[in-house]
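[User] At your convenience, examine this fold.
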Amino acid sequence: MFADSFSPRRAAIAMCALLAAAGCRDSAGPGDQGLDKPGISLVAGAGITDTIDAAQLQALVVQVRGSDGKLVSGTLVRFDAMPTEDSTRRFEPAIVVCVLSVPSCESYGNRSFATDTTDERGRAKVLIRLGRVAGRAVVKVTVPEFALVDSAIYTVTPGALHAVRASPRTLSLAIGGTATTVGKTVDRYGNARPEIANLTAGSGTALSISAAPGSAVLTGLQLGVQKVYVRHGSLVDSTIVTVVPTGRLVVWSNDLRVVRLINLDGTAVRTIASSVSSDNGAFPRFDATRQRVTLHAGTESYGGPSNRLLIVDTASTSQRVIGLPGGFTSIKVTRQLADASVLVVGMRAGDSGFLVYRVATNDAISPVALSSFFPTYGGADISPDGSRVAIANFELRVMLLSTGQVTPVATQASSPRWSPQGDRLAFVGSGGTAYVVNADGTGLRGLGPTRFSPGLTWSPDGTYLLGRVADYYSSGGLMQLIRVSDAVSVSVRFAVDYFQPDWR
């Protein structure tokens, strides 16, 4: 009995029990229990929640086992920092991976992937630093030799409060229209934080505001520019709101060689004609019904002489083209009348100057007035009723087409444009600024310092003028809108550089 109680078998059992109590492990090493499945196992460093830019003390450790469940040593493991799921911030790092040997795992430089080779325990390791974008961050783990893939998921939280942000930063709002602006608190990288910002209207009468925590509904009241402020404590940002009348324009892009319809607030863009360019611009004009547009264009690849007259139906974009042979060699401006005939300030082969012609519905061309003249670029316009033509060649004159009588109206003028009512003319003065004058030459007034390119347009009610700002290199789609009664003006910027608008 005594000898049996100390047999070698019992001694081995007792020893194993002692070792187990002391925390013994199998040959795979500490922490390997439960990691015996084939494939990639995430041993440590995954599933962490921390703030932006936080460097992790714990490395991301993975273990690789083959299809037989045995540990694989000496195989390459690739760790890829995946792009953020926020499509607006694809070029900002969501997470950063580095090899263990770097002094510090920073977010600059090429830290989008790292590799390591598994050791004798089948393990590979990289350092992790969280990136700039709050939210879900992913490190894809790949073992190319065995076509194994897994992912380590992290949660990135915002940093400390740094600023407030208004969205959008600029806003174009129609008179009578509404829009919503939002204010949020953000960290140093623009990640949203939970604090609530307050919104208030700045000084002015262009809009009204109905504010709620973090947002506000704006209503346009009258032409003007007004700020909406976003505040939290001492932090301030703003949205600049431009209030404009409602309007639908036809415009020409010289760069894109297209004629388009576009709302005054930049919405609802629609191309109605392509390959439109010429030495004399295009100067598209709505007809009396406001459903058809007349314009001129060249036939050369670069534009060339304006020898084609186009009439475009805005509903179907179908075109009627009056061109060579037998048409015009140069066109300055067009106007389709209520009877569907088109008046043209143009030149035909053999002419010694520009005349006013009528193009009938059967494309027959006949002169209306026999007195020739030489207008500048965009330097003529036909009155809405077709009875008069305004001609500018430094001096602005009005010709009565029925008699040929000419009345001087203003000096140092170019690019005249009749008001829709036919009682006034707007034109560009010698310094490029806009003027308005009655058709008989009385009531001349300047409308502020803005310099315009040729091609002003009136609103249908004669209240406003609109034109492209003249500085070609810096305007970049910039137009200026002027209220004629008091010369109050606002800037209107489009995504494309448009010229020679007309207002429906």
In short: Residues 1-31 have pLDDT under 50 and may be disordered. The domain at 248-503 is CATH 2.120.10.30 (Neuraminidase).
